[in-house]
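Section handout 9: paired folding examples.
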Amino acid sequence: MTFPRLLLLLPLWFPFTVASAQDKVPFVLDWATHSRSAIDLSRFLDAPAGRAGFVRPKGEHFVDGEGTRIRLWGVNLGGPSCFPSHEDAEKLAESLARLGINCVRFHGLDSNWGISSIDRSGGDTSRLDETSLERFDYLFDQLRRRGIYGNINLNVFRTYGDEDGLPDPQDLGLAKWATHFYPRIIELEEKYAVDLLTHVNRYTGKSYANDPAVLVVEIVNENSLVEGWLNGKLVGHDDNSGDTWSPLPTEYAKELNRQFNAWLIENRSAEQRERFRSDADLAANAPLVLLAPSQFSSATAERFATDQEFVVDTERSFLRRMKTLIKDEVGLKSMLIGDADHNDSVNGFPHMINNALFDYADGHGYWQHPSIGKITRTKNDPMVNDPSDSTMVQFARAPIVGKPFVISETNHPYPHRYAVEGIPLLTAYAMLQDWDGVFFHEFGRAVYDNPDAIGRNGWFNLSTDPIKVAELMCSALMWHRGDVQSAKQLIVRQHTVDEIMANSRMPSWEHRPFFDDAFAKTLPLVHRTRWRLVEKPVKAEYPPSPGINDIVSDTEQLRWQGADKNRGRVTIDTPKVQATIGFQRDAEHRSYPGIRHLSVDVKNDFATVILTSLDDQPIASSKKLLLFVGDRSANEDLTWEDDFQTVANWGNGPVAIRPLQGKISLWGLQSGGPLTTTVLGSLGQPTDETWTTYAKDGGWHVLLGNPVGSMAILER
């Protein structure tokens, strides 16, 4: 019988019981009407990008050529999305500007599918595709004209061809580990960097090495030889699938071990080398092989330190070589970084030390990144219930004293049931930490493709998700205006190189992300934190743990409550923005207390409500406010297996939202006229619809749910 099986295909909208059909309502993003939006954030952009000269680091922040601080609010464009037609490039640039985006990270110009900057027609990857580059040139110029900078990634999705002069290129996958040491691959990387950065844009008349609209160039994307070693990816395998994280094929592992033995001759005595051979039961003068993770615990401290030093040195040598090429020989005038901190399941600090060679520190991180492929699985836990492991805490390990910090990849990937918490939470705490940039991954092509559904495997696609796009608008206001104060106190974590290296032997999962057990994981939700290297060990003296029950920032503007009872809620309480994010009722099913200007009483169990000023005045005196109310968004026919973690049916759409039902109340508004509402369309287009408002008990109250919407303008 099939009937019991149908009961297992529960819809996305299931909170504790199956939601009724009317709970989900189609709410498609119509990008063709974006120009009619009442929310135009292009006023925060300084056009054209680069007008005031090259952006550079100054202390822990970025400044333009005039010395004015610049903070990055960005998105990624992935692979073929970097090469739209001219017409589509204009649409995309215009929409991104209206959303307040001031930088685009071009992530995958070297893509191995669809349109690419690499001409693969000859079976190799050593030549640029001039037709594709013309499209990229036009997009770059359209963005530049509107005040949007570019972040150029050099190595992301590159695979190699049979004519590239490499053994078994099909087994390399993305060559994550070989990029750092294999001579022929490094030659190809160098040629690509030179060719792309010296290429003269047909529309700007400048090379990418000499254009102030280029904010930064990134050398590699999540390629760490240290990570590869710690995760056992450097042991040779001949049965590779050739995917993103494939281990080294045997021929490449042999070359790495050849380099290891040559390094040992230069850096370790003959007596040490023979001692290593004896410990490994090898004959005299036999070549040594890098330790595998299964050997870490039994290896002597001397041997473990030796292998790790070689891996770290090899990675650093590659980064230095590329830095010399790009900055000194090519003459790049923009900023340069090597790679991002991106894997909190291993000790990432040796990798971060290597990347301290560059202009700023970078981080990547996702809340419960799905297991992707033929089957999509995601844990579907709310982040508000796990502050200690939140993405903000994970990111907080990477910022270095004296350098800016940027998050260049993050998302609550689709179809996570609690994704509505992600964007505003990250924005608020990034401001508390006084970080310098946030890039959401990735924007997608919906502006010109105009689909009515979230496409299959669109885990990261923002431009088809009406809730995330609306939150981008609200959060951009908060970010550009600096509505959330940076924390008053800075906590500096100090470590020696030896301490950091020794931490690689610690059980990663128990000690992540800081590998400093004296430092409470939730402290970054209260104070700013950075780390630095010191020559001698320093006894740590940190503030006490704030726990997870009631975490209040030292500015008192951010408050994280209820995680200890799995009813987490975060509030943002500032003069120009008020928000409540997460569960809207406590463990006793009572509505959480309101904040200064906002209280929420809705039937929805989990939601985000944001009230923000549109005229840049404090909410108390503002004449024009923007209200966002959001629960979930997904394809209308998306279904889950009974574990509520495995997608059973991706669905064909249309994309739908679960509207909020109930009321929100505004308090402490200065005297003015009646409160009127204009319900907005999915991109902020004004409609003729309104939400009912009434005054009572000294406040104004707004009834939600009919008509359906996620945003409204409130005027007095």
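Moving on to protein 2 of 2.
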Amino acid sequence: MPRMRAFRGFVPNVERVEPGNVICPPYDVIPASLHEQLLNHAPENAVRWILGDDPEAELDANVFRQCGESMRSAVAEGTIVAEERPAIYRYSIRYGNREGGTSLLEGVVAVAEARPWGEGVERHEEIRPYTVARLVDQARLTTIDTGVVQLSCEGLEDVLAEVEAGPEAGELVFESADYRGDVHTLRRIDDPQHVRAIEAALEPLPSAVADGHHRYTTALELSGDDQLIGGGYVLAFIGDLRQDGLHIHPTHRIWNWNPAEGPDQETVAEKIVEVLDDGEGEPWKLVSTSGKEWNLKTLADMNQPTLARRLADVIAEFPELGAPTTPHVEEEARDQLSRSENGILCLLPPVGKEEFWSRTLAQEVFPPKTTFFEPKISTGMVVRYTDEEDV
């Protein structure tokens, strides 16, 4: 696992603000409509620290400078306050899940020392250099760390129980509902001896990034930076992969192309069926804009790459198709397809937890946007500066 360390960050000031009014989703799942909703929800919302205060503005250097200034203003105004001592946090979220019920996710929030992939932490998705370059530039402009990398492991709660750091350990910082009604609970553990015991207990556990590959890679790039002396650490949540409150959903694929410059839909679909339909195994579908559907079944074979990778390899035979869009909800995917003149939708099955863990520990790298973890780890419950030493 990466070296998880206590840090001295900032938390919502419960005497001045309802913490749930500060909390927002991570930046990459906030469309413009939600951005505006969060701005209107509360003047203290952390969306201002990650996307600025104008949903229509282009995310440029000026916006990112303003994001950093906005968080620092929240400190100056007492909306968020500095912790007295470095701490590790027990964190949980009770949230409304996709199936319409309620789930509970539990784990630990600390900072992770970014170390090269394979040295205690594995990745499962491709890293896009241009995204890392953008995030590095953003980090230099904002000098804050608000986004939380999501890590998964096995046996976390057993290990924490051995050092008396179960879900109820520590002092309650807050329990508060956010704009959706999801309830966030943060508990502080800052006794130095207890902190050291937790850090030592966590270090031997292998872990994998569930969400936040590019944020983790950004911290790798900033390690040793003269300006951002805390840039080589990143806020991180770690939770047990096997807990019931963590769900892995599929991310679907839609390819749209000009039929005058590429193959017809039937040719593409028939090639996919020829290569990937085993007649047994996980069921999934192809849907075309013409309304035709194909039902496929593909065996889960650990001797072959993920289905998403095998599908990408088939599509590579048709370069005219280009890159897909990747909706993760079937209804949204079908709606997108209905607004396309010519395209094919692949409704993929989810990657199971066992398959995810086995492939990731074997250092298999999936195509981008293969998995969608629920819930996302929110922004705003605890944040930090990166131009100060806080570990």
